Amino acid sequence: MTQHTDLLPATVREFFAAHVVRDADTASSLLTEDVVVVDQDETFRGREEVHAFLRDAGSEFEYTTEQIGARRVDDAHWVVTVRLEGTFPGGVAELDYRFALRDDLVAELVIANHTA
């Protein structure tokens, strides 16, 4: 994964490092108990449900992840853009991971197609 992490808070960096290697336990440890994750119009609520999503999402495909951008929206909101290439339909996708942090944990994550 290409790194553009110098401006990201540690929580986001650590979440991404765990997520890329499919370490759902570590990624989940960085979530609030009441976390909400939205991935392509599907919503997961609470740490337990999100852990299952992180563990299983994309497991039927092989793919690489390259972080191609990162930006701060404000003190609690960050956007990380990634490029996925793999065996999933279409073979290439650029996604925005929109993080909302609370007390140094991920309280909300919205994963959606990248918008220029």
UniProtKB/TrEMBL annotation:
InterPro entries: NTF2-like_dom_sf (IPR032710), SnoaL-like (IPR037401). Pfam families: SnoaL_2 (PF12680). Residues 12-99 form the SnoaL-like domain. Coiled coil: none annotated. It comes from the Bacteria. This is SnoaL-like domain-containing protein. It comes from Lentzea albida.
